[in-house]
Amino acid sequence: MDMEVKDNETLDLRTLFIQYLLHWKLIIGAGFFSVIVAILYLVLYPKTYEATAQILLQDDRDNLSSGNFGLGEAAGLMKSFGISSASGSSVVLDDELVILTSNQLVREMVTKLGIYVDYSEPYSLGYRLYGTEPLKVSVDSADLVNFTRTVKMDISHRKDGSVHIDAKCKYSMFRTVKKSFDLPSLPNSFEFEGSKFNIDYASYYTERNTAFELLVDVNSPIGVAEGLVEDFLIEDYSKSSNILQMTCQDYEAQRAKDMFTILIECYNAQAENYKKSLSEKSLSFINDRINNTLIELEKIEASIESYKTKNQMTIVEYDVQMYAAAMQELQTKLIELGAQRHLIDLMEKFVRDPENKYKLVPTLYMPSINGSEGASGGSLASYNQILVERERVIKNSSIENPMVASLTVQADRMRESVFKMIENARQSLDLTRADLKEKENLLLSKMKNIPQQERVYVDLTRQREIYQGVYLVLLQKREEIVMNVAQGKERARIVDAPYIKSGSVAPRKLYAVIGVILFTFVISVGWLSVKYIVTSIISDFKTALRNQK
């Protein structure tokens, strides 16, 4: 029984195949039509090329923070405080990918390159010119920011150098604004629908006494940027590297290369401006602290001078030499603890200031925190990272971005942990300092022959050394920031310059051949199937009518 069913199925398929072959004229006609379509595809479809480039994203850390650069005693103090390599941040590829494909950055590239204006010749099937257009049209920079529509122009250039322009702007299906302009010569400008348009010869065009016609479409840079973001493919080269692979397709090879080149330039310029902005804020903060420290240092110097004059002191020496080594060690530790306590107080004052609510806590204040929170700064590093992310999102979008609200909530929650961390660090320092003071008092009690004036002088000199240490640390940080900015280190370094891959990616002959085969059988088999179904329906309908009669 099964063999009989299989034989019947084979017979039916063979019969169906023979029936199709009987319509060989239809199959040949469909094949001829498919070949014509394939030829039109190969001839009319512009050759499309693929451009590619590779860039290395370099992190913000510089060579100055590696511990090889120091300024005398400041380097030693910073090392003892644990802040000699506390600056810099690592690259987060996901964040940089968002920035590279942000509308703002791509829009800046579109504006700088001028590709928001499309040029084409009449009857060119919309093929855009690039690098060969005789004229250049641009929107005035003051109007380009709010330019959100498309203006089409038909420009006729006469032999005498005059220009006739037919401009139109379509707002909806029922409203289109048209206007004509006659310009006696170029360069020139005209206003249309609230925007000022500038028109001039291209710098490379020399045949200015020639009559020609040019079709120009002036588009919104925002809309052009949105389309390009979809066309760009930017992805990480590997999970273990900071290299990004960039590719895009365009039928103008030079335009594709120029877009990548300008995009990288705009990205580096944006990163450099952001870096300079942060550096300026840090320098302003450090300079303010340096001035305050100098004022305090001058007060201590004046107190020491007055005290020495009053007590006729010239050279201070310890009468008991056996306690000198122990006293020196205690004083060194107390100086370090005092400087750290002063830095923590400055840090708390900065964090609790409402004006600094969402500002980065400077890495200058990491000494004691490192001791209790780990080398990375623990909660403080996480808190700063959230603030950096929040500022970057605001810069590349707006304050209304939901991600900004989420980051703000995280920052507000973590701020309490920062306060707690500061308090814990202060208590730890106070306990250590109290223990050292107790030991110092024990030594001083044994030095009964040391005059009271000398003990007061020791306290004054200790305060002076504390402020001197803070002053040297501040100078070191300021020098690092200045030299880091002066380096001019690019955020994105070009590893593989933009180039066009050999061979075009479209039109493809293989697609044409596959299309011919598919369309030949689809058209013929589809037509025969529809014909067979219609015939069957009509036959069944006639049979039903006869049966009713």
How many β-strand stretches?
A: 12
Global morphology: elongated
Average pLDDT metric = 77
Record the strand order, biggest sheet.
2-9-4-5-6
Oligomer: single chain
* Cα radius of gyration in angstroms: 39 Å
Q: State the share of residues found in helices, binned by percent.
A: 55-70%
* Sequence stretches where pLDDT stays below 50 over 5 or more residues: 1-9, 62-89, 370-377
Query: How big a fraction of the residues is strand?
Result: 15-25%
Order of helices and strands: HHEHHHEEHEEEEEEHEEHHHHHHEH
Question: How many alpha or pi helices?
Answer: 14
Largest sheet descriptor: 5 strands, antiparallel
Distance between termini?
Answer: 40 Å
Given helix and strand content, the structural type is: alpha+beta
Describe the secondary-structure layout.
Blueprint: H1 2-21, H2 24-44, E1 49-57, H3 73-81, H4 93-100, H5 103-113, E2 117-120, E3 135-139, H6 141-144, E4 151-157, E5 163-172, E6 175-183, E7 188-192, E8 195-201, E9 212-218, H7 221-231, E10 233-236, E11 243-250, H8 253-311, H9 324-352, H10 367-373, H11 378-396, H12 402-446, H13 452-486, E12 492-500, H14 509-548
Antiparallel strand pairs: 1-11, 1-12, 2-9, 3-8, 4-5, 4-9, 5-6, 7-8, 10-11
Helix pairs in contact: 2-14, 3-13, 5-7, 5-8, 8-13, 9-12, 9-13, 10-12, 11-12
